[in-house]
Amino acid sequence: MPRVCDVLTTCEEYSDLCKRILRDFSPSRVKHWGFRNWEAIEWSRITLDQSTPLLIISNLKDFPARRSAQQPQLGQRRRRHLVFTREMPSEALPTRMARLNIRDDRRLHIAALKDRKTIEAIIRRAICGLASPEDDRIVDAWWEGDAFVVLSPSFQRLSIPLARLSRLIGADSDSISKYEIDSDGSFVYWPHADIHLGWLQFLRMVDPAAVLAARIKHEKFNRRYGSAIRSVRKTQGLRQSDISGLTPRQVGRIEKGECRATLNSLTKLAKAHDLKLNDYLFQLAEKLG
């Protein structure tokens, strides 16, 4: 099966994080190239497929001081740059971006640098999102004044005014700033209001017309994926009640396509089948054709 995405890291720290994250993915599906800095990239040994998304993960300071003569033209690829600001002011960004020929903000996301756990979570969500057949996960989210912004794996941004969110989460600045993003990007959660909102819910708030087409596509895929999950389970001779950590009703809803199989659910399904997550996902992919 073809690769679903390529990952290039230009920092030893992020290379180590990616190696840990990618243990759940087959090397044939997600290819990772790790280098200590941008100048150390050996472009000659990197094989790039123009149809495969490329995620480049860097610190701002990692960007080259000058364009390398060996660097290939990446403008035609589905390239995304995930950049963390560290040890350099954001004012340095325009000059660095010019050297990489990035002119479209849909190719770039500058994430606020926090702790290592948060950085790893953002990277994990970005990779999981690119490896997913649907662009409806949430990689990152933040407040910009009175608007809440969510970012998809393709770096599409939705900006939701607080006025449309306040009926669900309130308007208290301290409470609404304390949100959590699911480990695989399925939803944003506000503990104080016990509210979970996914990409389609946010999309509905800003573009009700667009969500109809997205929902049709989303539900169609869920039904196909659920059918594959049911087929693999029956092949293994398992009952819905044999999936530890999921109730038979939850398994039934997933198999009927009434809800999406999250990474957490798939991990439990894989364990029940006595398979590694990657091997289980490969079996589902074969069923999907």
Main beta sheet strand tally, sense and closure: 5 strands, parallel
How many structural domains does the protein architecture include? 3
* Helix count, DSSP H or I runs of 4 or more residues: 10
Number of strands: 11
Structural class: alpha/beta
Measured between the Cα atoms of the first and last residue, the distance is: 10 Å
Q: What overall form do the CA principal axes indicate?
A: globular
Helix content: 25-40%
Strand content: 15-25%
| Strand arrangement, major sheet | 2-1-3-4-5
CATH architecture of the largest domain: 3-Layer(aba) Sandwich
Taken in chain order, the helices and strands follow as EHEEEHEHEEEHHEEEHHHHH
Poorly predicted regions: none
**Can you tell me the CATH topology of the largest domain?**
Rossmann fold
Mean pLDDT figure: 84
C-alpha Rg (nearest Å): 20 Å
> So what's the CATH class of the largest domain?
Alpha Beta
What can you tell me about this protein's structure?
A hairpin with a 6-residue loop joins strand 9 and strand 10 (188-190). With 289 residues, this protein is α/β, with parallel strands linked by helices. The strands form 3 sheets. A 5-stranded parallel sheet has the order 2-1-3-4-5, covered by helices on one side. Strands 6-7-8 form a 3-stranded antiparallel sheet. The chain has a 3-stranded antiparallel sheet with strand order 9-10-11. It contains 10 helices and 11 strands. The chain folds into 3 domains: 5-131, Rossmann fold, CATH 3.40.50; 140-206, NE0471 N-terminal domain-like (2-Layer Sandwich); 208-288, Orthogonal Bundle (434 Repressor (Amino-terminal Domain)). It is globular. The termini are close together. The longest helix is centred in the C-terminal third of the chain and has 28 residues, at 208-235. Helix 7 (208-235) crosses helix 10.
